[in-house]
Design brief:
single chain, alpha+beta, Aminopeptidase, 11-stranded mixed beta sheet, globular
Length: 279
């Protein structure tokens, strides 16, 4: 069954859409870390999730008048030291002028940080062709089987040697604004995908297919099913992010009507590796 086309009568600019994406990021992060407002931005921290980057970062970064990048970095470092954890990455404020963000970004790069960019994609149309569903799959809500959801999270986390990613993955299940689907084949967890509701925005996240089940059309099936949920929810905008070198994912998203609208850049602290979210 083809999906209805998302209502685009009230078209937003690409800059507006990027700002909306940043808002969904804040909602996602706030479920993992404690929130503190600093002069330079909003800091999230959770020492129990010290190895989970999304639980320890600062967002909406913009230099206030009179503050130097050096002072800002020192202030943020002291804040995280007090909380016995570390700021894994910085995200500049998408709504602030470059004069308030570029000096900070450049200073971070000079001090061993590195910019890590992901493409922001927007669902702009209904699927351009019918996506065939994989055979012999059972699609269930993730809350119907925490055991299977945890199995997928554990496999994903092993790739990064970061076991606390599993607990972060499961914590999102407590969020009433988060809907997640599991694909089972012969009683085995084959994949998962979810969508976070942030007002009129649906944010697709934690899209993962177990290694033993890849190349069998399970990812296409899961994506189709989650977009059906988005359509029933009447989201005005459906968004996701993808690493630009993940050509298989980019191709799949384009097949169902996603287009790139911008980039989300995080400045990773020295020693912090780049990896996807849990899942």
């Amino acid at each position: 069954m083809p999906l209805p086309i998302i209502d685009s009568r009230h078209a937003a600019s690409q800059a507006d859409l990027v700002r909306l994406f940043h808002q969904t990021e804040e909602r996602w992060t706030a479920h993992l870390g404690e929130t503190h407002s600093l002069d330079i931005g909003t800091a999230y921290s959770n020492r129990d999730f010290a190895t989970v980057y999304d639980a320890n970062n600062i967002r909406d970064v913009a230099l206030p008048d009179g503050m130097t990048p050096e002072a800002a970095l020192a202030m943020v470092s002291a804040h995280y030291e007090q909380r016995q954890t570390r700021c894994a990455y910085w995200v500049m404020n998408a709504s602030s002028p470059e004069s308030a963000t570029r000096p900070m970004a450049e200073y971070l790069l000079l001090n061993g940080y590195r910019a890590n960019g992901a493409d922001i994609m927007l669902l702009t149309d209904a699927p351009r062709r019918v996506v065939a569903e994989a055979a012999n799959l059972k699609i269930i809500p993730a809350r119907a089987s925490f055991r299977h959801a945890r199995m997928l999270a554990e496999e994903s986390a092993r790739r990064w040697n970061a076991p606390r990613l599993v607990d972060a993955f499961m914590r999102h299940m407590d969020d009433p604004h988060w809907d997640m689907l599991l694909a089972l084949r012969d009683g085995v967890a084959a994949g998962c995908i979810g969508v976070l509701a942030v007002g009129e925005i649906g944010r697709v996240e934690q899209f993962y297919v177990a290694e033993a089940f890849r190349g069998q059309g399970i990812g296409q099936t899961l994506l189709r099913r989650i977009l059906e949920i988005c359509a029933r929810s009447l989201f005005r905008h459906v968004m996701l992010w993808v690493l630009p070198d993940n050509s298989a994912a980019v191709k799949l998203y384009a097949k169902v009507g996603f287009e790139r609208i911008g980039q989300f850049t995080a400045h990773l602290a020295p020693g912090v590796q780049s990896h996807p979210r849990p899942g």
